[in-house]
Amino acid sequence: MRILITGAGGFVGRHTCRDLLTHGHAIQAMDLTGPSAASTITDWTVCDLRDSKATDNAIRTIRPEACIHLAGFSHVPAGWSKPKELFEANVIGTINLLEAFRNHAPAARLLIVTTAQVYGTQSGPAALSEADPLLPVSLYAVSKVAVDQMTLLYARHYGMATMTVRPNNHIGPGQPPDFVVSSLARQVRAIAAGAEPVIRVGNLESQRDFTDVRDVARAYRLLIEKGRSGSAYNLGSGHLVSIDEILGHLCRLANVKPEVIRDDQLFRERDSSPILDTSKLRTDTNWRPEIDLQSSLRDILAEQA
Predict the structure, then answer these.
(1) Which residues pair with 26 in a beta bridge?
(2) DSSP summary character for residue 89
(3) Residue 270 has pLDDT above 80, yes or no
């Protein structure tokens, strides 16, 4: 398929493009800026999805057969200080994209990426399924609920081949340093290279469900190939790990024993990722996570060198 990837220059976008190319798909990349010097993608469109006319013109010109929509505002804490920018990027940008496809490529398959945070802080003995209520507790999650629900509505109302995926946290090589695992890995690597043996941390008791970004990219490919129109899909490993455990793994892998200091600027109240039932994804695409946590952390440390 000829697949448009929005946010192609980002952390997940780069891995998704690489996976799609490896499996024979043609890529049309789209981002706010052009490709980096290291990019091997030749078909690249610079477009701000917040601009409805520019988005409409781009889709009318490209007319892709499918789209994986990754572009948007992804840093959860910053959403509280920049709510207008958050909703413009996530909600308005997605509306513009859906409308452009409805007008110019209505038969295309669209996978819109939202987040497991749409479920909020629900917990219980059973993993959450796609039918469980959406109870967001951050502005970021509210924006993604809006994106998720309007995407599914476009399938019901217009008969478009739209679907959503609700991923839990992901990690891997190339993740920006303002995310917790990448931040810890950079500090650990610096200590191993001779820096002061001190690590500054937030709340180490928080728990996350981490999936390697390369497994996430593979899930996105399988969904654009095999996913059912009008469906939402959960994505995650199904296992929680504390930030303290992550730090311990990184220190052992790098053979360092630093002093750990709490940084109040990084500290957030203890929270936990929701545990998701991914049986629908597994049934429809035969996806399974393949890269274990230790391998992910080892690769993250290696790329910090």
Answers:
(1) 2
(2) I
(3) no
